[in-house]
Design brief:
By secondary structure, this protein is mainly α. It is built from 6 helices and no strands. The chain is elongated and about 70 Å long. 3% of the residues are buried. Keywords: DNA damage, DNA repair, DNA-binding. One of its GO terms (molecular function) is DNA binding.
Length: 130
Amino acid sequence: QRLKAAVHYTVGCLCQEVEEDKDVQFSKQSIAAISEITFRQCGTAGFPAGCFLILCRHAKRTTVNMEDVKLLARRSNSLLKYITQKSEELASSNMEQKEKKKKKSSAAKGGRTPGEQEIAVSENEDSNMA
């Protein structure tokens, strides 16, 4: 009931914004109807946590991953497209962070890349043998 009331309140606020913006008016009945439709639609399109758990167990995993989310979102093309886009953005952001960490760690080790460090070590070994 509290969730339904929150949806009704939010729809009312949005309708107020539209009224101010577009110079139209919404009756209380139309706001209630929009709220009810919104609530029902969210109920059918929403993804309860149990759905994710079922997918994980079926795949013999204990962690929900992005593919599980995409699988459940496939009924809505726009939602699937949005989730895929965000997933790709997160993946590229993670790769950038990993690259920055690699650069910082190599700079902390004397500013050499791993290949340059190997060459320096082998040169030291050669000079020690002579």
